[in-house]
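Task 17 of the worksheet. Students: predict the tertiary structure of the chain below and write it out as structure tokens. Keep your answer in the requested format; marks are given for formatting as well as content.
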Amino acid sequence: MKKIVLMLISAMFCFAAVDVGAIVHTDENSSVVLTNKNVFGAHLFNGNFANVKQHIYNPDYRINVGDTILLKMWGAFEFEQSLIVDSQGNIFVPKVGVIKLLGIRNGDIVSIITQHVKNIFKDNVFVYADMQTYQNVSVFVTGNVNKPGLYEGLSSDSLIQYLDKASGINKQYGSFRKIKILRNNELYRQIDLYDFLIDGKMELIAFKSGDVILVESVGAYIDAKGDVLREFRFESRREFMSLQELAKLAGIKPTTTNAIVKSYKKNNRLSINSYHEKEFDNVFLRAGDEVEFLPEHLPDEIKINVIGEHNGLHTVVLKKGSTLQDLKDKIDVNPQSNMEAIQIFRKSVAAVQKNLLDAQLRELETLTLTTASISPEEANMRAQEIKAILEFIERARKIEPKGQITINEKTAAQSIILEDGDIINIPTINNIVIVQGEVGIPGAFTYINQQNINEYISLAGGFSQRANKKRVLVIRASGKAENYDASLFSFSKPKVQAGDSILVLPKAEGKTLQFTNLITQILYNVAIATKVILDI
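Model answer:
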């Protein structure tokens, strides 16, 4: 029995711990389920209006019992006093008598009082009158607000002030567009707060004690996001709204051209459609739809960045589909421009190289962390090796490939189609050969015709002890790479040309052949993609 009681108490605590903010409400007349997403207008009620008391001039306000009127008269007769409208709706002015003001428009009080004064003083008496204090009233705020109740304020207070006193409209199921003001149990005004939120329009209403502000339930919400000024959930006045109306509410940017509409059908189907801006007026949205506004522009031109040795502009605009030859025709070259070794760097190629490198590094990391040791002694030895490999992986992840496209000597420039954002580098004509990596003295050496690769390596101090003689790379200015195995005697060696880079990779040693091959491949790919030797 005790166990049953404990289980019931535990269940009660579980239910008590439910996050109220996560509760959703479904209107019987609507297919939309409302959640705590950003609701347009919810930011309006944060206490900024509730405690404000100011007398706003409203010419249509009707004078009521208890109002205070400041009256000034000067000229042949001088008088100044604050007069309270008595229980019969009158004020008393010395030498003039009783003046009935109950129900008179605020904008008419000067003319009414002046008319009575003129009956006594024919000339030389002037009148000024102004509402000094509006009557305090008590207004009921109910419906879908956070704190329904009876709230006291001035008759001149605005609708927003009374709603703010009630802690605002409930953003889950309260309507910002269907707010009723009831007087004597009859509809007095129907208010749409979007008029204020979008256009700043607010009708001034003179509230009376006993008035009721009723916030109705929301009917339909539609989400808007993307290329807009306001990413919110917007409420529709009706069961549907046009896509053009939503675009206005969300404030689409001048760059917007299209909208993707995601609709949830009653047959458990999801419908996704795309519409051009010209179609917005004829597309109608329903409750629960989600709309993403997009700047879908199809370029007719592409922008190419030209760097390196030339005299022309660094940004060239070409028609889409232009070739490398089209660009060459526009480049203002100089005697130092090496147009035979022109280079192309492309973002998409760099991304592919980066993804390949990251995949290999993840494989190496997994292999490093999951390879078991046979004995405690081996485990201790492996700890240092693992640390070194993980540091190598961390350095390799920071490598950013250049995305160079290899231009084959047999490839004609008119067959290479350029893409938007391509970077074209024009190298400077030089007679330098760079040797780097695992050599004694890495550096740049003058090009000597007919001098072979071994001779350049000798000029750089020969191979170091860590050199992988099987992995010697010759990278041409065009991006083409050739592998040379210096451990074997061969009469056919890569022909070294002016502007080439010779890269001697380090040896990669691991616990297994798989380790060694994987690290060697990573070193090779980094060297190809960046012309940099990564140390291990």
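Marker's comment: The two ends are 68 Å apart (CA to CA). Residues 27-53+136-217 form a domain with the Outer membrane lipoprotein wza fold like fold (CATH 3.10.560.10).
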